[in-house]
Structure formats: C-alpha cells, structure tokens
Amino acid sequence: xxxxxxxxxxxxxxxxxxxxxxxxxxxxxxxxxxxxxxxxxxxxxxxxxxxxxxxxxxxxxxxxxxxxxxxxxxxxxxxxxxxxxxxxxxxxxxxxxxxxxxxxxxxxxxxxxxxxxxxxxxxxxxxxxxxxxxxxxxxxxxxxxxxxxxxxxxxxxxxxxxxxxxxxxxxxxxxxxxxxxxxxxxxxxxxxxxxxxxxxxxxxxxxxxxxxxxxxxxxxxxxxxxxxxxxxxxxxxxxxxxxxxxxxxxxxxxxxxxxxxxxxxxxxxxxxxxxxxxxxxxxxxxxxxxxx
Length: 292
Prior knowledge:
Blueprint: E1 3-7, H1 29-34, E2 39-42, H2 52-60, E3 67-70, H3 74-77, H4 86-96, E4 106-109, H5 119-128, E5 135-138, H6 149-160, E6 163-164, E7 166-168, H7 183-195, E8 209-215, H8 224-239, E9 243-249, H9 256-268, H10 277-281
Parallel strand pairs: 1-2, 1-9, 2-3, 4-5, 5-6, 7-8, 8-9
C-alpha cells in the first residue's frame, strides 16, 4: 500500500446503512471503517492523549495495513513557543509509538498566529523530534507562502524528511454548486468557508511522503476537476516512490468516504494500486446510489 485514503472521523452515525452496514453498533465503527478505508486523520488526539488500552483496542480492531495519523495535542501546538513543549511532544510520540506498524505520519497543525518570525523556534522543535517517526507540518500564517519564507520552510522540512501539509479548500469556495444546495447542508458549507483557511496550493513534496487534506464540496460533481488534478499529481509521485496520505473532509460528512473512494479510483486508473478494501467488502450493497 503506497496510497492511503481516509476521513477525519470513524464514529459517524450518518454512515449507517450506506458506508456502514445497516444496524452497525458504535463499538463496531472502527472495525467496519478499516474494512473499507486505509487510514484515519486522528483529530481526537488534538484534545486528549489516548490510553494504552485504547491504542491496544485500535490495533486489535484494524488490519496490519491500516494507518493512524494522530494530530499533536493543542497543548503543544497552540500554547506559546513549540520549543517549550519539547518534552511533552516526546512523551506524546512515545505513547503513539505503541501503535507499531499501524502508526502513520503524525501531524503538527500550527495556528494562524504562528508566523515565520518563529522559524528558529520551529527549527529547534523539529531538531528534537525522533527521526524515525514521520511528521507532517501544517502552517497557516500567510507569510509562510511568500518568499523567502516559503523556500526556507520547504528546505528545512526536506532536510528532516518531513511533509508540508497541503490543505485544499478550493472546492468549498466554488460558488457554482451553491445554487442547488439548501437547508442545513448549505449552512454547513458557509460555516466551513469561514473556518477553513484559504491558503495557496503547494503541490511539491518536501519528503518521501505527501500529506493532503482535501475539503470537498457537498455537491459531488463540483469535485470532479479537483479530484482529477490531484489524481494526476498523486500518480506521478507514486511512480517516483513517494508515499501519499489523503484525508477527505466535507461540510456534509456523509460524503467523506465517497470522496476518498472517487479519488482512489481516479489514481488507480493511472497507477497500479491494490483494490481498496471497501471494493472487496460490500461491493454489492454499498453503492453510491444507496447513499441517501
């Protein structure tokens, strides 16, 4: 497996009867999820560190090919300078290492106020990170996307073999699909436009792996051009031996898995990939036509 696709959550009741089989219980969400997709964006670790028992349960409920990608806690990333929290970060890394082969890249999401003026702080923090553990870094301050800060950050990350997280919010800013949306889905789309950062798209890997967060439009057809674009990029990088992790979000959470599947299928048309577990699990019952 060299292309991993997944969602930001696995515990979503709205998937019962379409993505999950009818009658799926909460205790079975993760096992059912891992029978279909291959990774998960671990946002829960942003708020609390899981216990060893929880990690053991995650291991027991997923296949060896599945990957967890935990977000570093906000007490590390959103509380003052990073270097002040090195010890806490190393403890977190040690806890997550208990996932063994199921641990994918962890990711550090920095707040919008964290600017290039703190480059030395970031450098000191990354210097202390265990080199055997993959890390992706997401910056949101706009100055990181201008010269010379853009180049300095990319050079630093490349030196550590760390990915620069790409978050693509272009789809939710495409107004063409708004006219057919209504009610709560439209309201969630508007909220997503306010919450999600509108950042330049940088499609050049800085590491031996690529980390993409794709924020899809709730009208599936509006994603076609963006998914085709990313599929071409991903297929090209896979040919170069670069591993890729892609996480699909949507203001209508019901669609997250379907975006993952569509992207995977597009890449598979250009680069030989193993079947997505989903395609082997319930190909006869879990069709897009049964979504709603």
